[in-house]
Amino acid sequence: MALRPIICIPDNRLRLVSAPVERVDDEIKRLMDDMLETMYDAPGIGLAAIQIAIPKRVVVIDTAKEGEDARPICFVNPEIVWSSEEKRVYQEGCLSIPEYYEDVERPSRVKARYLDREGRENELEADGLLATALQHEIDHLNGVLFIDHLSRLKRERVWKKFEKIARRSANEPGHPAHDSREL
Ligand code: GNR
Ligand code: NI
């Protein structure tokens, strides 16, 4: 297993539409293992492959609270096949938009169809945090970020702030957030 670097805005690869996985083979299983390790290390409750720069339709989620046993779920080619009319608002964050949190309204319950780690067809009806996380991750597979659900003003403000940070660290060798690129 290996930790992989997580890419952040304004990296435009986060806007790619990820490609469906043809077969859940050993390479995809290794990818899922690396994603779980990277997610737990961050730490986060979900991760889409594009966040480690792999444009494939693979997602991992674990919404277990601190102190609870791990409950990792791997999703290949997930699709939402039903969403509730009822909505809920949850304060979201994203590992690709560090330290920015904002309320997002989404359907409170969804049903998803996907292939599991063994390549078997599966269905899952989710509510609560799992429903929110699943919708957030499937958005990533389509190049959509949670800030796209906010007002244009807020979205552009956040994007510009991260552009500024990226520019600054590109001109300042030794900036901690971007050291890895310069080695
Ligand atoms: O760790 C994460 N927490 C979170 C909180 C509320 C709604 C969605 C999320 S997902 C996020 C990890 C991430 O960026 N996944 O793409
Ligand atoms: Ni995210």
Give a quick set of tags describing it.
single chain; 183 residues; alpha+beta; Peptide Deformylase; 5-stranded antiparallel β-sheet; two-stranded antiparallel sheet; 4 helices; 30% helix; globular; disordered C terminus; binds ligand GNR; binds nickel (II) ion
How much helical structure, as a percent, in the residues?
Answer: 25-40%
CATH arch. level architecture: Alpha-Beta Complex
- Please provide the ordered H/E string of secondary-structure elements: HEEEEEEEHHH
Give the DSSP E fraction (strand runs of 2 or more residues): 25-35%
List unreliable stretches of 5+ residues.
Answer: 178-183
Largest sheet strand order:
1-2-3-6-7
- The number of domains is 1
**What's the CATH class label?**
Alpha Beta
At the third CATH level, what is the topology name? Peptide Deformylase
The span between the termini is 22 Å
What's the number of extended β-strand segments?
7
Give the bound compounds. ligand GNR, nickel (II) ion
CATH superfamily: Peptide deformylase
How is the main sheet built? 5 strands, antiparallel
Q: Which structural class do the helices and strands define?
A: alpha+beta
Global outline: globular
Radius of gyration over all CA atoms, rounded: 17 Å
Mean pLDDT: 94
Question: Could you walk me through the main structural features you see in this protein, from its secondary elements to its overall organization?
Answer:
There is one protein chain. The chain is α+β, with helices and mostly antiparallel strands and 183 residues long. The chain has a single domain (12-170), classed as Alpha-Beta Complex (Peptide Deformylase), CATH 3.90.45. Helix content is 30%, strand content 27%. The strands form 2 sheets. Strands 1-2-3-6-7 form a 5-stranded antiparallel β-sheet. Strands 4-5 form a two-stranded antiparallel ribbon. The radius of gyration is 17 Å and the shape is globular. Residues 178-183 have low confidence and may be disordered. The structure holds ligand GNR and nickel (II) ion.
